[in-house]
Design a protein that fits this description.
Rossmann fold; alpha/beta; single chain; five-stranded parallel β-sheet; 3 domains; Helicase, Ruva Protein, domain 3; about 450 residues
Length: about 450
């Protein structure tokens, strides 16, 4: 639960803040700027509501002290002083917004909700930047199909056009959507995800557009919709192919006009949010079968980007494995530093129906189950993913049905080289003899297919 600090010397105003905010937020109260600073030192505060005229330390002095302490907490000035000059001065000293008393409760609630969402997005972006994985830096891989998708996404980040991300489940569409947002001009604003398959159909419109208190059974309080929370930011509609048909028409109208009505309200709401959609469905097929409106499909399919499945970007698997080992090993207290070539070969040969998400879960499970090992072996991998063992075997021509020629050749060479390396004890010169080729050509092929091997001594090589 987010924490709101309300600073006002009037007890009645403090009580009003407590009543209007306590259902959604943890509320801290202070009678002046000095006691407000004391509370900030003791608690993690997400937003401050600040009066200007108070004893001991007024609002302007509080803003100045907050800036000197380099506290990155958004402030909404709420005061009875109706002066443009004072409002401008408050903004110069760091206030985010300015509200005049007496205020509309709904106006303040909406303002608080929007700014809290924006601040959370800003904090997440800063955390990613500090970790060195903001924007497109968080995407691992350099295979042709993957880079084609990333290059399209980089172009999308430069504009505000609607993006439709397609691809199988687990390919990283959510990561790509966040990269587009954090690399664009709306990066400092909220990134608001909404999973269209996780919401009951009868509640979807409320989740998207919001509702008034008492608008329907169970609406015990007013609620802002995701489209309003994402104003000036990005609304990410994940699995949009699962959106109920009755909501699709209203979403189309909202996208065209930039306006909508919350349920139970006659007050129009405007929202300037950038829309990014994602789906694992075949959308033209869904349109043809009547599951998805064709006019909405045309509206969201402005910049289509397809994320390739992992089996079509096998060259990226070694990089992804190394990334997930580095990410999860410290967290699960594992000693694992690397995977032996045969283990990596098993992972590269497996088809990964769950794609990158399945791979990350698999690597984490490997690390947990073999925490004391420094090197993960092929047997370890096949013990966790039995299908990986079968995937490394080539049993006949049926294994290559429907596979592009280049991928089929790479898979066969990958299999033969790994087998030769196993039989030769990891000595490249002996493996080359088994394969009827030279060590130089074998080394070239191993580099091309990203097959690692133990370093050889001069005696072994000779």
């Amino acid at each position: 639960m987010k924490t709101i600090l309300a600073i006002d010397d009037e007890g009645s105003v403090q009580q009003s803040y407590r009543i209007m905010l306590s259902e959604q937020y943890r509320v801290l109260l202070a009678e002046n700027g000095k006691s407000g600073l004391d509370l900030i030192a003791k608690h993690n505060v997400d937003l401050i509501l600040l009066d200007l005229i108070m004893p001991q330390m007024n609002g302007m002095d509080f803003l100045q002290e907050l800036a000197q302490r380099k506290e990155d907490i958004p402030v909404i000035v709420v005061t009875g002083t109706n002066s443009v000059a004072i409002a401008v001065e408050a903004m110069k000293r760091g206030a985010r917004e300015y509200v005049i008393k007496p205020f509309e409760v709904d106006e303040v609630l909406l303002l608080v909700e929007r700014i809290v969402a924006e601040q959370q997005a800003k904090n997440e972006l800063n955390a990613l930047r500090e970790a060195g994985s903001s924007g497109f830096d968080a995407l691992i891989g350099d295979s042709a199909l993957f880079m084609q998708a990333v290059d399209m996404a980089r172009q999308a980040a430069r504009v505000d056009s609607t993006v439709l991300l397609t691809g199988e489940s687990g390919t990283g569409k959510d990561l790509l959507a966040r990269a587009i947002h954090t690399s664009g001009r709306r990066a400092a604003r909220a990134f608001v995800p909404l999973s269209c398959c996780a919401i009951p159909a009868q509640l979807f419109e409320s989740e998207l557009f919001g509702h008034e208190k008492g608008a329907f059974t169970g609406a015990i309080e007013r609620r802002m919709g995701k489209m309003q929370v994402a104003d000036k930011g990005t609304l990410f509609l994940d699995e949009i192919g699962e959106m109920p048909l009755e909501t699709q028409a209203k979403l189309l109208r909202a996208l065209q006009d930039g306006k909508f009505y919350p349920i139970g309200s006659n007050k129009v709401i405007e929202s300037d949010c950038r829309i990014i959609c994602a789906t694992n469905r075949n959308m033209p097929e869904a349109v043809a079968k009547g599951f998805f409106r064709n006019d909405l499909y045309y509206r969201i399919n402005v910049l289509p980007i397809e994320m390739p499945p992992l089996r079509k970007r096998r060259d990226d698997i070694p990089k992804l494995v190394a990334h997930f080992v580095a990410k999860h090993a410290p967290r699960v207290n594992a000693r694992v530093a690397e995977l032996e070539p045969a283990a990596l070969g098993a992972l590269m040969s497996y088809n990964w129906p769950g794609n990158v998400r399945e791979m990350e879960n698999t690597i984490e499970r490997l690390l947990v189950c073999h925490r004391e090992k420094k090197v993960i072996t092929r047997d370890c991998v096949c013990g966790i993913v039995p299908a990986a063992e079968a995937a490394t075997e080539v049993t006949g021509l049926s294994d290559f049905e429907g596979m592009p020629l280049e991928e089929a050749v790479n898979r066969l060479e990958f299999y033969l080289i790994n087998k030769a390396m196993e039989h030769s004890g990891g000595v490249q010169s002996r493996a080359a003899d088994l394969l009827g080729t030279t060590r130089r050509i074998l080394k070239y092929k191993m580099d091309q297919l990203k097959i690692d091997s133990p370093a050889e001594t001069d005696a072994q090589a000779g």
